[in-house]
Amino acid sequence: MNILSKYLLNSILEKKSRMLLIIFSITIGTALLVASLGISDSITNNYVNTLKGAYENFNVEITANAKAKDPLFNVSDFKAQNIKETFKTAAVNGYVKNDDSKTFNMLGTSLEDFKKFKSIKILKSLNLGTFNGNKLIISDKTAASLKLKLGDKVNLYILGKTKEYIVSAIASNSGLFLSDTSSNFTLITPIKNVCDIYGEANKYSSMFIAVNQSSINSWIKNFNNENSNFTAKLLVDESEVSSQSSTIKISMLFMLGIVLIMSIFIIYSSFKMIITERLSVFGTFLSTGATKLNIVFLLLKESFVYGFIGGILGNLLGAIIIYLSSSLTNPLKEEGIKAVVNFNYMYFLYGFILALMVSIISALAPILSIKKLPVKEVILNNFEVSNKTTIKGFIIGILLIALAIVLHFLGGNIKGQRPYITALPAFFIGFAAIVIIIPKLVDILLYPFVRFFRKTNSTLMLSTNNVRTSKILQNNIRLISVSVIAIVIIMSFSLSLNGMLTGVYKKLNFNISVSINSNNANILKASNDIIENSAKNSNLIKHQYITTNLNGDFSKEINVLCIDPKNFKSYDDYLDYADKASQLEELSHNEDGIIISKKISTRYKIKKSDKIKLYLDNKEENFKVLSIVDAKFMNMGNVNLISFSAAEKHFNIKYCDDFFISTTSSEAKLKADLTKKLKGLPVSIGTKADSIEHDEQSCKQIVGLLSIFSYITMIIGSIGVLSNISLSFIKRKRELAVLSSVGLTKGSRNTMLLCESFIGAIIGLLVSFTSASLIILLLRDIFKYLVLDMDFSYPFNSIPFISIFMLVLGFIATLPTLVKSEKLEIVSQLKYE
């Protein structure tokens, strides 16, 4: 190991607090990248693996569609080839007669088909050899929940009738029973029992099949083309599950951007201080034959070491976050089944590369500045770093702020499909500009106070002048400003996210909601009749979502919402129309018309009056775009409206599965009436308050995650401030000794140090609270570019908390310096003067 490498190692280990600060900031950034990429995959994998575990080898489901006259069918009713295995069933829902909180999905099938689920083990059985009559197979968990034993009888309520069944077998909680809970479970019975309920001969409502996974999409497409009355679809659609976890991913990537800004600034500032500290040592190296290039490479090695260590630790932390997230979101956690965590090792590679890039690139500018140092002065140790702030940086910063503002206004006026394309550069330019102007801004703000205190209080004058002129103290203000801006942005994002996720239902006019959780035509018809009769004297709004694809491209998902435009007008106060009344009126009179959402219009470059082709079950339907509406965050902006008459004409939709009832009578009475009449049917009944509360609960996890990283941001900033204040004292020992030698007492010296910290915190808070308004404005533009019109609110309620925290932090960070100040040896510091 040569002398430069030994010096590098000793230098890294000597300043442990600074080393930990740099590594910590890199670690957090790396962990956020790995976690943001991996959490979405992990949550998706958990749910997908759960579903795949339930369906085992089966991967496609075949059902009769809306074109079929009868929802029940025989296998001979359709054409299909290359099927490996089948599971045929007729399903019906109901509840336990003596406990209507216990609901079930009863599958009628044959014992031969049931045994195709290899993971299901029969634990106990009684006369199961002949699977006929009113026999039931239940899971071990269901037996415990209902307190049933082999041979026990149970009364089940199904479609208005009660029938007695006998427990003939108890099976393991696997396969079809995998998702059984204490309140909702699966029951297996002979096929004839379910068909008798429907008044049919032995037919099926659904058939699971196993086909080659490699050709599954083409198989589904061919089947749907050949069988117009049937629909084949994936039993487990990974893309659908993945889209539900995208909000967490977006939130964490947003946090990553904030943390990276802080990390870059911390590393940049730290390396400026490293170079300032080591100028005398560099002079020694240069005098012994080393070149500036040797020193540049030495410092680049140091930044590489920080990035290397931070990358490893960040990957470990990211893996821990993914594991914890997988465990918390495990759908089978209550069943005692552990989450299966599948790590994508490419994400760890991306994290490691990011760590190295952030560390090296952030340090590059200070390191390359060494090439501009005068060699003679550095060798003779006569070189001093000037504390003078120049107007040049201030002017550049002002011009950059002006440019960011211009880009903001320019973005909103860009015509075409993607306005606000200038949002991202404007955001980072604005952030950089604020950091650049701080030194001169501090100089300008504090100069009048220096002049005032010169005549009134010498200690305050010294404190104010030191803050005005010291680059180290100005870097503290920069660090405080960046930290506070980051915290304000995070809190603003949290508030806005909460409002976004809960704001949809608040602007919809209804009291009761009813969702039918079945695509069975008989169940849909029965439920529709009951709901319509019960809500005769109320305003009944019907919904039906259809998932289609644009031009047959499965990656271009278009969610179509079927509505009655006449009563939808009074129900919806959320969507943003150009002219609500005329747009919905036009839709009601056009069976080939569609109102496209702004997000879909922008993403796929669709304009008003365009003709588009929507595909459902591989059937092509043509629509004309009547107008465009901003769906904002309803269904994440993918809401496209057609009328029910258009839905029946194009997609054979006869019954809807979502109802929203607005009533002037008793809400509780109507809900109780619906609950009573719909018992035994697979429906969910709730109130508007229930819907809002559900969204608030789902939002808490994301907001809580953001809050954690808000505190992490505070910690990063705190360690940075502490490090800088300690460094400030080390660099100013001689200056403090000179002041003490000419009459500055220990008490005055301590007061001066405390005032410096207090003044720096005040200036940092003023700058950050003011500039955060601009940054939030520019952040809003970024989300507008993403076609997510998020209404960011300034978190005024957080200002007192942040201010107190930063002032207390400044005081605590100064305490070690006060202790060191007490031990300052004036003679030792001045003996060479």
From TrEMBL:
It holds the Pfam family FtsX. It is a multi-pass membrane protein. The keyword Transferase does not apply. Residues 20-194 form the MacB-like periplasmic core domain. Keywords: Cell membrane, Membrane, Transmembrane, Transmembrane helix. Its main location: membrane. InterPro entries: ABC3_permease_C, MacB_PCD, Membrane_comp_ABC_pdt. Residues 254-374, 708-820 form the ABC3 transporter permease C-terminal domain. The chain crosses the membrane at residues 20-39, 250-271, 304-325, 345-370, 391-411, 423-450, 479-501, 708-730, 751-779, 799-819. The keyword Cell membrane applies. It is found in: Cell membrane. It comes from the Bacteria. This is ABC transporter permease.
